[in-house]
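EI: anyone free to look at a 76-residue chain?
SC: sure, send it
EI:
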Amino acid sequence: MSDDLTRVSKAELTAILDEAEEQIAAIRSEITRREQMRQHNALDELELPIKRTAVDWTQVRAFFQEVLSELRARAG
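SC: here you go
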């Protein structure tokens, strides 16, 4: 490979390097975009069950009152 590069002018080498750096930047940008999309999709999947879950706060309150009563009975 080094033999091939010795025949290439400095301007051509610079152009090749610039093009390679642009391609690397484009690849990094695509990787970032895909990771952001993956995270966005993961959040969307988490939100769906939460939206579908109806909370009856009176039942939650009754549950905790029962737990507190049992704990007090054991302590008392």
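EI: The first helix runs from residue 2 to 6.
SC: 👍
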